[in-house]
Structure to design on (408 residues):
């Protein structure tokens, strides 16, 4: 592809030729993003500066101002413009249309190993192998991920099934196509004086948000232990993300929390207890999945099949123990792990919960639907068949692609 400087020269020249950007020393052109869809390219540009004379219909004000716009054309048109003006070519040269990469952005919330299959797919080049330039945008919660999808800031989201169902119940049409996480790698950690399940009555349980991924995992664990939050009089309190919850437990602000193995270590060493290891529970579960607006699947079957292939290969890469060093580096980079014991624990968690059984799991969706309907009755009316799209994983199974990955 072009370097950033190369794209800058392309867009500047085109805008100038169309008299959209005057030659002014006080102006600065920035290319904020580049999108590719099929045979079309769009560049989001921004011109900013402090006008010292008339700029379009803006009078000189000596105050900072800016204008944004989108330059849209076909790849063929762009190629002709570039090849017709040699000074536009970047030092890296031109990417031929046959090797063009489809841009793909995915939003995700949370901060844990559940995003590792996507990280590995991006950083180890599995998506690029199938012509996809993928990137991930981290936001605070699953709800914010949905907001970026609905506003078309991203092409897909990587969210928990509880968020998916809440979104669909609110009128947004989603399709979920694949997710390689099928276990909950968390301990239900409680204060020292809580020795039995019955001792949980009236206690405070910390979560990140009501209806989010951590809340869902906590509810699944409690349900499997026979704990009805209402009958037990549990107080579900929104605390923050995992590190904040861990601190709240240690300082006595909450009594229990479903914590990652890594964050569980400090309280367990301090005498806190684990009432359950959720990974050992025999419950249908599926973690974050790739979900898109249903309309986006129309006429893009080939793209999403390639995307699913990249995710499958990334998951197989994680499961292959000979790749441990590379997988650990991915985790260290994205989770900012500095200690070797933290990296080792994180790797074990990832291997434990990753699977090549990637098709959306109807049984898991039904469990989630039953639990989330307690706080949002509308979710009970959601038609799961309208959400689950296993056609891409099924196609890979039928072709033998998944079978070959399992042999590795």
């Amino acid at each position: 592809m072009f370097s950033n400087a190369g794209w800058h020269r392309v867009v500047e020249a085109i805008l100038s030729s169309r008299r959209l950007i005057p030659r002014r020393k006080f102006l600065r052109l920035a290319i904020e993003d580049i999108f590719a869809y099929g045979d079309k390219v769009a560049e989001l540009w921004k011109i900013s500066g402090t006008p010292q004379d008339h700029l379009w219909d803006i009078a000189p004000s000596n105050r900072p101002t800016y204008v944004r716009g989108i330059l849209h054309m076909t790849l063929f048109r762009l190629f002709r413009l570039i090849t017709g003006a040699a000074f536009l070519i970047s030092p890296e040269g031109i990417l031929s249309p046959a090797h063009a990469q489809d841009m793909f952005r995915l939003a995700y919330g949370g901060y844990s190993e559940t995003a590792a299959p996507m990280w590995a797919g991006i950083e180890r080049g599995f998506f690029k192998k199938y012509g996809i330039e993928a990137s991930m945008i981290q936001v605070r919660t699953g709800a914010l991920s949905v907001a970026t999808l609905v506003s078309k800031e991203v092409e897909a989201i990587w969210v928990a099934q509880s968020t998916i169902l809440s979104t669909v119940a609110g009128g947004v049409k989603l399709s979920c196509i694949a997710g390689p996480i099928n276990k909950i790698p968390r301990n239900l950690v409680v204060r020292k004086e809580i020795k039995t399940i019955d001792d949980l009555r009236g206690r405070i349980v910390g979560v990140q948000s009501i209806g989010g991924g951590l809340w869902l995992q906590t509810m699944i664990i409690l349900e499997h232990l026979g704990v009805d939050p209402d009958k037990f009089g549990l107080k579900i309190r929104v605390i923050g993300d995992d590190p904040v919850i861990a601190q709240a437990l240690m300082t006595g602000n909450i009594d229990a929390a479903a914590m990652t193995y890594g964050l569980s270590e400090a309280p367990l060493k301090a005498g806190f207890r684990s009432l359950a290891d959720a990974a050992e529970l025999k419950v249908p579960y599926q973690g974050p999945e790739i979900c898109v607006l249903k309309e986006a699947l129309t006429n893009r079957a080939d793209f999403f099949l390639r995307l699913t292939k990249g995710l499958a290969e990334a998951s197989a890469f994680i499961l292959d123990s000979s790749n441990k060093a590379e997988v650990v580096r991915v985790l260290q980079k994205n989770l900012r792990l500095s200690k070797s014991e933290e990296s080792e624990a994180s790797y074990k968690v990832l291997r434990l919960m990753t699977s090549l059984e990637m098709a959306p799991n109807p049984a898991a969706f039904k469990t989630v639907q039953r639990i989330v309907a307690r706080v949002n009755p509308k979710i009970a009316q959601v038609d799961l068949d309208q959400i689950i799209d296993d056609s891409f994983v099924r196609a890979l199974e039928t072709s033998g692609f998944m079978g070959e990955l399992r042999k590795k």
Observations:
- Residues 301-319 form the longest helix (19 residues).
- The chain has 15 helices and 13 strands.
